[in-house]
Amino acid sequence: MYVKHGTAERERKSNNMASLKKTIVQICLIFRAFLNSLFSIKKNHSTVIGIFSRDECPPWLVDFLQSQESLIREVRTFYISSNGKREFKDEISRCDFGILYHTKRRGRVNITDVTDSLYDTELVGMSEQLGKEKVIVLVDDLDSSGSQEKERILHNQISIKKYAQELILISCAEKTAYQTANGDDSIREKLGTMLDIINTGGDSWVAQITRFLNCICKVFLTTLFAFCLPSRLILRLLNKVCCSPPNTLDGQVCCSAPKPLVVGIFSRSAEENYQWLGEGLRLFKDSVKEIRNCYIGNSGFRTFTKEVDQCQFAILYHTKNHGRVNITNVTDSIYDKELKYLSDTLGRGKVIVVIDDLDKTDFEQKSRILREQQNIADQAAELFLISPHDKINPQLLDKKLRQIEDLINAAILYLK
Asked: Fewest C-beta atoms under 10 Å: which of 52, 65, 106, 254?
């Protein structure tokens, strides 16, 4: 009798949960329709873009902007000379939006506020004539274009932040990947950001309300779903319920579709040691776009930083078969600099540490490692301990891989 009662109770709870999920989906559909109807603002897409530089404007940038016919009517290029101030002002007046372009092939990133800076007066002039929200600074041909490099430039050249809406960094590696058959999402996302700013430039109140409603939409959906659905299902529903194709510039304001991330596995170990990890994560196609393996050598830190720039989520992998668990904060630790760089560049929430081939993987072992190697807790979102027994037990391994997937999904949903 008791068993029957327990089964009926579980069925009742299951039906209630299914009903709740259905209700949430219906609410989300209504909410999306409300946003689209409220902010289906059709703009007059006749923007004239001016690219201003002391260098030759790159064909790839001009071609990309000219291809956006629904948004951009004309792309104008202007060479800035030392004695052409009058012509420079006249050219700005013919444009609706300005891009200040600089290439590191000149030798340095010396736009403003530094010795021999090239664009102090020009940046101020563009901002005063067009308005800060209609000016972008684009720096090309960099070795590194990650968030750490961007913060460093903005810290040293504060006028960029004061007089421009955005600073966009493009690396040589990103351009090379962009021109390949498969393309490169990192540069496409940056160009998409630029188009979004051009699309809303001048309508600052629209941009502010857009960001506010997008934030509400994402928080509303992810918070409600988190109570009753696994994170992998959240992504699928977000794609169906509240998202339009990315970078669709048809005048409608909508949430950006969650995109799977490029995950990098960084290690001093050979790839065959963590092949199981890469193969397991590749199965999560809604969360993982690509797995990149990076060997960390003693003399290849620049190679390491370039590889980090290609990734959106990082796994620092170590195997005890090396002899010790000496990741950081201990004698002869081997990942101090790398772990800090990953955390500073990608953000702590997008970095995890995996220690493999341990005899024990219980809570006490994990607590001891985190206590003795505190930087792991400070600079990574989570520490995963794996034993040989875990790897030959499909259920145990799948459970830990699913936990890693949840952290990747958290990066997609909350840390974007």
From this structure: 106
